[in-house]
Design a protein that fits this description.
With 109 residues, this protein is an all-alpha fold. It has two domains: 1-39; 41-109, no CATH class. Helix content is 90%, strand content 0%. It contains five helices and no strands. α1 crosses α2 (16-37). It is rod-shaped and about 80 Å long. The two termini are 47 Å apart.
């Protein structure tokens, strides 16, 4: 099951349109199956609520994941800007710049 979920997430990240096509297809299959089995209105309402809850959890996970990726990218950009600023401050001292690029923790300590 984890492999299937990982494949769906990878597919969604590569092309979100495929995710919606898959979602609509699965929903259509569910509706046709319920209609064919003669599911009552109360049962159908319960299934719609269950599927909607799972979809809401998936969407919230996606939103949090996207925000986390953006935050990591922003941190990385800020760190690179800081390194460029420090490197430009130490430009007259090439060995310091080399040491800072290779061992940044040595400069900060």
């Amino acid at each position: 099951m984890k492999v299937v979920i990982a494949e769906i997430v990878a597919l969604w990240k590569s092309n979100p349109r495929w995710f919606w096509i898959l979602t609509i297809s699965l929903f259509s299959i569910l509706v046709c199956t319920c209609w064919g089995l003669g599911v009552t209105k109360q049962d159908a309402a319960a299934w719609v609520q269950a599927v909607g809850s799972i979809a809401a959890i998936g969407v919230s996970f996606s939103i949090v994941n996207r925000q986390h990726e953006r935050e990591l990218a922003q941190r990385h950009t800020e760190e690179l800007k800081q390194r460029v600023q420090v490197a430009s401050d130490y430009a007259p001292y090439p060995f310091c710049v080399l040491a800072w690029c290779c061992w940044p923790e040595a400069i900060h300590n």
